[in-house]
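Quick one, T. Sequence first:
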Amino acid sequence: MILVGSIVACLKDTTHSVADVLKDYPNIDIHAIDEKKSNIVITIEEESDSKLEELCKKLQEHPCIIQISHHYFNFEEEVDKIDKGIPTDLSLRGFSKSEQRKERDKLSEY
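Structure tokens:
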């Protein structure tokens, strides 16, 4: 299980409509909405980083979501599994600085 603290950047004046969409996901909790900066602070709980990546790609298809940036990760259960020699599905693909830089470069094209 992975717990992630993230910021959802939205188009101006769309934070509440995006929040309504996010509320439909039982594994997403909304913690704050900043209308001035058009950001929503959320936590996401997922089974694996690949499922997290799938969810974020799906959410980013929403026309009012500009970007989802992850700021906190908790892999406690995965670390316990690794410590016990239990296989895990933890690749962290897409979370390196170079991958984040690619995403920022895509955004700068707008």
